[in-house]
Amino acid sequence: MSWKNWFIKGLLWFFNPKETRSRHCSTPNRFLIVSTTGLGDTLWGTPAIRALRQSFPDSSINILTSPIGAQVLEHNPHIDDIFIYSSFFSLVRYFLPLKRKQCDAVLIFHTSQRIVLPYCALLETPQIIGTEGINKDLDFLLTKSLKKTYQHEIARRLSIVQEVGAHVTDYSLEMIVRKQEEDAVKHFLGGHGVPDHIPLVGLHPGAKDTFKQWPAECFIEVGKRLTQHLGCQILVSGDQSEALLILEIASKIPGAIPIAGELRLSTFGALLKKMAVFITNDTGPMHMAFAANTPTVAIFGPTDPNLCGPFHVKNARVLSARKTCTPCLKKRCDEPFCLLEVGPTTVYEAALSSAYRLAFL
User: How far is CA 98 from the centre of its chain?
Assistant: First the structure.
């Protein structure tokens, strides 16, 4: 154990003696879910949240999540209160409101911030349940530690809610799209002169980790071929930090529309629902497409689709190289040549077979 964790352990012993957390609630009814990382991570938790609500319809379900996670969950009907973790000061601000919740169980879906688990321990919740080995060496703060096995991240989260008695019947991701988001999409497309009858094809060339990015020239080739052969409207999407990449690709595909972060996340979710096919790297919007039930071609390189790809999704096609060193799951990769093993023709053909919404196919 590192000196940091010894220090944390000492502070917790001083401020929160062990006996105050030894109380056990056999039938928990007030939950705090912790999921403070990215877009995809948050969506992975939605089947578990739904299972928790369906199993405990009268319970109080609260979540501590990231700013982007709050956008994903803002209209989720299974959650009572959302607490947004954006800084240390936000944790200070929420401490008393969370303590007043008197939660019976904290369910750690995922957090990459060392402070979060000790913070949950200070809430004096009888149960803190999580997965061993992914808590910055702070597993000793868990009252129940589930063994980490080779399973999809959605299944791992489901195993946590099953530990408190939830029953799982539905594995689908969930992101609520309201009519106002659908109206915003109509306004956006109308403003770009896109007729209602033209099929929409999305290209998502970016990723938070650059080693997950399929080459820009490959996206350009696929976009050109789809435009030429299908007469579809190409939409090149990403966030503001990827604007240069998006503009580069869109400028080389006839008629393509760049979308560089100008749509709200929920509005982009509504746009995904209208797409005939979405071609994407392994990134958060890929999981949004799964939630929207949009036919999706997902290009994987160093990451393992068995852990973080589609899970019980019918309309998804995974393309990945299996003759290289994948899956390596490294945090960085200087030469992700595995992505180069997936050629433009393979992606183009997969897009054609996946786009069953196209009337002439």
Answer: 24
